[in-house]
Amino acid sequence: MAKLILAVLASTKGTDMQAVIDSIKAKKLNAQIACVISNKEDAFALERARSHGIEAIFLDPKNFKGKEEYDAEIVRLLNERKVQLVLLIGYNKFVTAPLLDAFRNKMMNIHPSLLPSFKGWDKNVHQEVLDAGCKASGCTLFFVTANPDAGPIIAQKAVEVAEGETVDSLKEKVQRAEQDVILKAIKLFANGKLKVEGNKVKVLK
Questions:
Q1: pLDDT confidence of 199, banded at 50, 70, 90?
Q2: Which residue, among 29, 13, 43, 7, has the nearest Cα to 122 in the 3D structure?
Q3: Which of 50, 72, 103, 104 is 20 to 30 A from 95 via CA?
């Protein structure tokens, strides 16, 4: 089977991307990351990409008239590299029509809670989970749509919230779950096992 061509959009460290890189290197995942694109010049995800010989692209939003023009340029870069699946890993920009239309049901985002509970961003989410006294948290992988954190859910994985849990310790636990979920979903996608019906994802046998 041909290698699945991936791209990553990231604004932060790209920790979950490391699991994908490691899995590809260990030949557990028949895929290739064509490029990593970031809206932040100092995003460690770009450094992470470079250190593994992956093309790292800083695309400065200031050079574009608006979000749609920016996303149209991302589409051009992705198409040029024949990308089949886009992963959003800690990407802090809302995705607009050009990118949504070009990669409908081919763009996955990972969120650090069990959606629809606790929408939001990074450590704030974990703080809210702890403040609410939840006994479990987890992660959600979904296909990106125009509605933030509300696209068709591909997979979820729960983790226990222990006594004395901190934001950092919970984040670490959830990230391990995220990596597991992402790797499984990439394999399912590559094998044509994910079918979107309305706002639900069916995993085909």
A1: very high
A2: 13
A3: 50
